[in-house]
Design brief:
With 441 residues, the chain is an alpha+beta fold. It is 28% helix and 32% strand. α1 crosses α3 and α9 crosses α11. The model has no long low-confidence stretch (mean pLDDT 95).
Length: 441
């Protein structure tokens, strides 16, 4: 574990927001040179490091080098050229005023620790770039340099959990026509809602967290009001943390609204805050469109038992410019197709564009790697997750491969409250080592 933390501390000093992985790629190449290991690097900042001291079948151990970079309002960190500051709080490792990057920096650090071990292994360590945004690393990787059919990704976030399938993720832009018009200037309110718990738009979408869109519209569910604009600008894989709405309502009562926010905070164990200003506006959103937006199902769309298998996250809104962006996650192709069809019906007379699409991967029928993982950890269990992973791209490029995903317990990913359980790092690393040592196929 000490080596894992040592490497993570080094990684944390390197700026590595998605799209800015050049320095972390250089660090990995220097590591390989220092250890005398074979390595390859490409123009997309992917790095492959190989270590063969065993004649058994090779196994790919994989992690992505980038992180979701978010910071507090008061933080002066410049993610372009600065790393992050770490601190320990009780049994957790966290960062000061920024996201931690444990997703997937802990995975990267574990693989480096593994390559630093002396026992026999046949490892193809694959470090990919931009997983959190475009997945350009996995999509442009030279798969001809890999011989393994077994892939163990360290991109998990729950100790003892073995992910054997993942969800697709489709980013969608909707452009509307004639939903706003220019009016005579009038008095309105500008409401800023912020400090939502937020979280990962796949793994946290069913955790009963407040969403600014629903919080705002639920307050007006029984009342007619005029909407002049809504603005949300978040990353596609993050649940929105704040929203600005401009509205007018002649019966608006600030005390009533304040009580509403307090009640919702208590109900959901959150600490949402708001600011309210007077504002002059000359823009008005069509009331029929407002009704459609209010009735649109944002969040969990469908579950299978306790597992979310289809969901939607609206992460960008600019109604004045008639644009909405959302991310769709689906564990089955049929669910993805149904959602897109329903979306076209709900927002008819709009232009819907697919901005990006990442594939899902399904569980292998005879997964020998899964058997090893369950054998080397008696507490381990299988899980389908509702998050997009690079495994879908690997599965498209390495035919008949077997994919499993494990990782240390990470809480509040992609937020300034992100933290990783220290004991979990130790346990998962020991599990990784035992599994690699047990490879005999």
């Amino acid at each position: 574990m000490n080596k894992t933390l040592k490497y993570f501390n080094e990684i944390a000093k390197i700026p590595r927001c998605s799209g800015n992985e050049k320095n972390i790629a250089k660090y990995l190449c220097e590591f390989a040179k220092h250890k005398g290991l074979e390595f390859f690097a490409d123009e997309f900042d992917n790095v492959i490091i190989k270590k063969k001291t065993s004649n058994f079948s090779p196994i790919i151990v994989q992690a992505h080098t980038d992180m979701v970079c978010v910071k507090s309002k008061d933080s002066e960190v410049n993610f372009e050229n600065q790393g992050i500051s770490l601190c320990c709080k009780k049994d957790y490792l966290t960062a000061i005023d920024t996201s931690l990057g444990a997703d997937n920096g802990i995975g990267v650090a574990m693989i480096l620790s593994l390559l630093d071990e002396n026992f026999p292994m046949n490892i193809e360590a694959v470090f990919t770039s931009s997983e959190e945004t475009t997945m350009k690393g996995a999509m442009n990787l030279d798969y001809s340099k890999l011989k393994a059919k077994y892939i163990l990704s360290l991109d998990g976030s729950v100790e003892n959990e073995v992910v054997t399938s993942s969800a697709s993720m489709t980013e969608i832009e909707i452009n509307f026509e004639s939903i706003s018009k220019t009016i005579e200037p009038c008095n309105a309110y500008c409401l800023k809602l912020y400090n939502f718990k937020s979280g990962h738009s796949g793994e946290d979408i069913d955790k009963c967290r407040l969403n600014p869109i629903s919080l705002f519209f639920n307050y007006f569910k029984k009342n007619e009001f005029n909407l002049h604009d809504i603005n949300i600008n978040e990353k596609s894989n993050v649940l929105p943390n704040e929203m600005i709405a401009i509205f007018s309502y002649s019966k608006f009562d600030i005390k009533d609204f304040d009580n509403y926010i307090k009640e919702e905070n208590e109900r959901y164990s959150e600490s949402v805050k708001y600011e309210l200003f007077n504002q002059i506006t000359n823009n008005l959103i069509d009331s029929n469109f407002v009704k459609k937006l209010k009735s649109f199902k944002n969040g969990v769309i469908k579950k299978n038992n306790q597992n979310v298998i289809c969901s939607c996250n609206i992460y960008f809104i600019n109604l004045k410019n008639s644009k909405i962006k959302l991310s769709l996650r689906a564990n089955k192709k049929s669910l993805e197709e149904k959602f897109l069809n329903d979306l076209n019906v709900h927002f008819s007379n709009s232009k819907i564009n697919i901005l990006d699409s990442k594939p899902f991967f399904e569980k292998s029928k005879n997964n020998l790697l899964l058997s090893k993982l369950l054998l080397t950890n008696k507490n381990a269990y299988e899980k389908e997750i509702h998050a997009g992973l690079e495994g879908g791209i690997f599965a498209e490029n390495i035919k008949n491969c077997e994919i499993c995903v494990i990782g240390a317990t990470i809480l509040n990913m992609h937020t300034i409250n992100e933290k990783v359980e220290l004991n979990s790092i130790k346990n998962v690393y020991q599990w990784l080592v035992k599994t690699i040592q047990s490879i005999d196929f």
